[in-house]
Amino acid sequence: MRLATIAVVRARYPVALLLIAGALLGGPSALGSSVSSNPLAGARLFVDPGSNAARQVAEWRATRPEDAAQMEKIASTSQADWFVGDSGAAFRREVAARTRKIVRARALPVFVLYNIPRRDCGAYSAGGARSGAAYKRWISDFAAGAGRRKLAVVIEPDALAGLDCLGPAARTARYALIRYAVERIATNPRAAIYLDAGNSDWQSPAVMAKRLRRAGIAKARGFALNVSNYQTTTASVAYGNRLARLLGRKHYVIDTSRNGLGPWDGPEYWCNPPGRALGQRPGVKTASPLADAYLWIKLPGESDGACKGGPSSGSWWPEYALGLAERARW
Q1: Residue 14: is its pLDDT beyond 60?
Q2: Active site residue 81
Q3: Superfamily assignment of 52-326 in CATH?
Q4: What is the pLDDT of residue 182?
Q5: Annotated catalytic residue: which of 67, 81, 158, 255?
Q6: Fewest beta carbons within 10 Å, which of 39, 97, 215, 252?
Q7: Where are the domains positioned within the chain?
Q8: Is 292 noted as a catalytic residue in this protein?
């Protein structure tokens, strides 16, 4: 699996974590009933009327009303904010502004950090910070911008599961950078931190447990699974429970944004596979007490990369988004 560059800062991809009342499993504008041990339980989520999907609904409403109704499935469902790019004052202000906007709406920010050096090992989502020092500055700027507000953070999709492309020295450096990210963000006691752990069809639980320990999961809430992938929720829960037991019953979240029909049996199954569908809407009613929530971490409709007729990674692809919505089982 390789992860597409999904979204950056609001200036380019203004998609926040979305939710409208009644959208989640028939419940209120919250992830679910209060469970004191689950930092995501009871959290309200923010609806951004400027999301790509929402703009597509507005564009199609007059000329393609049936398609607009399908696209509304995406526009009305919560999705995470992704951050990449340069550090500095502008980045701090961007994070602070986004966090304030969500918090003022009495909602929980859910952010994804995706800027590790040598990101995606040069594949479709190549990029990341230019050096370890630059990455540490970027993490510090993110933490400063977010402040001490309550939030959930997914750290570096693919970075640990995809270590195999790196040499020994680069692996050591990556572990150190992810530990730094965990420790720096954990200075905010209200931050629920989830380290990315790949997906159920990638590394074995034993391998991922070893990598997560070395990356500092002891100071995190737990780990994230299936980010931007298509593995079923059932497979992800089974894998997550096995991994959690190896980690002293750490908790986890699962990305269900596009796993409604499971993975595609074809080449580069992780990159814009045909015939896929939206998965279960976000919620804390999960199949395991160790699973804090199902979330839409990937933004449905944004390309995984320049494959199978898709645009560059992170680009909005309305027809692919429409297909995901049409095939959803809800």
Answers
A1: no
A2: no
A3: 1, 4-beta cellobiohydrolase (3.20.20.40)
A4: 98
A5: 158
A6: 97
A7: 52-326
A8: no
